[in-house]
Here is the input.
Amino acid sequence: MPAIPRPVLRFAVRMVAVSALVAGEAGAQDRVAVRDGPPAWSDEPPVVARLLEDGYRAESLRLSQLAASRYCAASRYGSIEGHYRLGRLYLLRGGGSRNRDAGRALLGIAAQGGHEKARHLLGNAQAVVHDLPDCMFGGSLPELALLDEVVPHEVVARFVRNLAPDKRRHAQLVQRLALRYRIDPRLALAIVRAESGFDPLARSPRNAQGLMQLIPETAERFGVRNVLDPEQNVRGGLAYLRWLLDLYGGDVMLASAAYNAGEGAVARYGGVPPYGETLEYVRRILAFYRTSRHQAPGEQG
Here is the structure.
């Protein structure tokens, strides 16, 4: 029997998956073809990111009720990814038109928020907002601002694996060098992602350059001769970050604010400067790292 060409096989698998979703067949959650990958390391608030990860873990174990409760909590916080994953789960569970309607309603919200997978699954089906499931209403939720645990290593490992090859190479360089400066590689990656998106040729309007966006004064201060050399740039940026973490006693909020605006601005305002760019920068770092205390390599977590 001749082998089936890969493109044809992938198309057939995708069509089977979509057919199962639309029909809402009972037991469809057991089909590998319709499983989605894990949630990405993203800018979601830490509590929401944890809920999405817990939901995915439960779904992987086929604990659909537990997965739905976690996705629903994330969805109630306004998470587009939460809307998508809960809607998709309702379609997979079967159970008649009520579940299908709830799934479509959630996918419709996610699609309106720009979620491409939700738009693809929804197709031409009509989504009505008042068909949202009961779990979306009532009950208490955890405090959104809670920051207590560093992002899990496996989440960051997936993030690095999914980068484009050139960016992955630079991310791995950051991870390797961070250990030499007694910096948690997860924090170093969060900084570099926010600074340059792992582009070694990035340049800002203020003439900050390279992976860690060093301005000429900082490059000179930490002995960087070629700011566009990825390794020199990362070493200089990590040396500065290490200095800031020491200065602020491991306070990630203050260290990241100073990395963005300068330690002089932090001293002048007695904390995070009230600059829109800096406030958003600190929010992104905390959303990725998920705790305001630096966890040095070798510590638990």
